[in-house]
């Protein structure tokens, strides 16, 4: 992290990677629905759509957090925490999702853990800045 790179800059980069993964998942589901339907069950579609909606909300909240909004910082952390827990739990349920999607869930969980660390660091910085004022 360079002197000008903030934790929220890193969180934004991780969120971009998250959106790429989610977009790839939806594209894979479209292809698999046509080519190998058992690899694209209804549960996978439901999961992908929920993750996609949260994928739209997360960058919006992060943008507001970068503008100094504490509530947006909290919301970003909450979204990341929910995605982390949901993806870990769903990846651990045997037979619920195809193996390729379970791998995607683990990758998302890792990204969300990184975003949580970044949000916590940003909140700590904001608290220190508030104490100094």
Automatic annotation (TrEMBL):
It comes from the Bacteria. Keywords: Membrane, Transmembrane, Transmembrane helix. The chain crosses the membrane at residues 16-36, 42-60, 72-93, 105-124. This is Peptidoglycan/LPS O-acetylase OafA/YrhL. It comes from Brachybacterium sacelli.
């Amino acid at each position: 992290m360079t002197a000008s790179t903030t934790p929220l800059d890193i969180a934004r980069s991780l969120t971009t990677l998250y959106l790429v993964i989610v977009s790839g998942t939806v594209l894979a589901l479209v292809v698999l629905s046509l080519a190998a339907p058992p690899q694209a069950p209804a549960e996978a579609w439901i999961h992908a759509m929920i993750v996609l909606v949260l994928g739209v909300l997360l960058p919006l909240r992060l943008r507001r957090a970068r503008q100094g909004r504490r509530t947006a910082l909290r919301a970003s952390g909450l979204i990341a925490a929910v995605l982390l827990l949901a993806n870990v739990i769903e990846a651990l349920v045997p037979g619920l999702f195809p193996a390729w999607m379970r791998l995607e869930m683990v990758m998302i969980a890792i990204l969300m853990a990184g975003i949580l660390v970044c949000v916590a660091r940003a909140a700590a910085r904001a608290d220190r800045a508030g104490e100094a004022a």
